[in-house]
């Protein structure tokens, strides 16, 4: 493919014209799995089990998977019909309103830029457990440079790097589930049990030891665990044959995630008492993965999981920088940011957008020096909340798109890919996401992040109204 077109060409050919289509189905699936399988599974899964109990955690993750699947079906329909690198921001602009599209794009940029710094910091802290005499800041700079380099090389290189980083996590989760099942049925030894543990732990303290309420209060953690699946929509504009590859990637990714997450929860719950699953220790040793691997007798379990979590963090940062920079490029392509942000290098990368997004990681990098727990938890709260708001916009956009499609005299069969059970899927997806957002109010640790998100949303709408509205109307 030729080098990137000029700005004039970009405007005349459409929003996604300048970005190169270099991704296949395997890239899309692994980018999606890579975005979702992270510290939320390796560390956060234990926290959900300790709060809800084993059965409650299984129900939470199944509900989370169903919600994610409904949202991704909506996204699939939109992405196949309009494969845009601006993705849901563009869809919201067209089918909800320009101000909402602008706000959603900035929210998704905030989602990833807020967590970038925390990913680098967390990876650096894990490296320090191996090399205590080397400065955390040195590791942070090295990891940031690696991720920046991968994003600046080419879309193909980015996709390949994400494929292999994600594969490390997938192999670990599959090995954990298979070994765990062998231990559960007594085929291999498990420390503390002379006979097969089977599933007695699942209901040892009753079906719901803390009641039903924690199932709903942990939904933000669970939904955030599934976040990253929507990266398929962002990458659709740089995918070969999106009509074929996007639906296949969505179905493959969601079902694999559901099996991985629920399988992991069942193994942890069957092999560990639920009060042991939570994070009551410091560092990687608190991961239920480490505890189970140690009890099975896997040598160097802590080192293995530390390595896997580092790759998980770098994979998430890699995907996050890609997604956030494409959102900034999309705003610039719509003339809602200066045209400098949509400038591309010879490899078709929006390099200014990538560089500026890296600067957005600074607050996260400061989390280690100033009130680390408070800043870290609120940044994750902000990321989770903004992600769920973006999911709501996807459902709303698809609902309005399909209504317009029918009004124009088209039939569902004319769509290359259509979400089933319309209008039930977008309506239920929107309602469940809305309930998840409201649950943040009931967590005192996240109330500051919740208020900050609302202020950010208000600022986005206000800035659009006062800075861009007249200019955009005149350009339309």
From TrEMBL:
Keywords, ordered alphabetically: Membrane, Transmembrane, Transmembrane helix, Transport
Gene Ontology CC: one annotated term: membrane
Domain Amino acid permease/ SLC12A: 27-471
Pfam families: AA_permease (PF00324)
Gene Ontology biological process terms from the UniProt entry: amino acid transport; transmembrane transport
Compartmental location: Membrane
Membrane topology of this protein: Multi-pass membrane protein
Keyword tRNA processing annotated: no
Segments passing through the bilayer: 28-46, 58-80, 92-110, 130-151, 163-188, 208-232, 253-272, 304-327, 348-366, 378-399, 420-441, 447-467
The keyword Membrane appears for this protein: yes
Main localisation: membrane
Domain of life: Bacteria
Record-given protein name: Amino acid permease
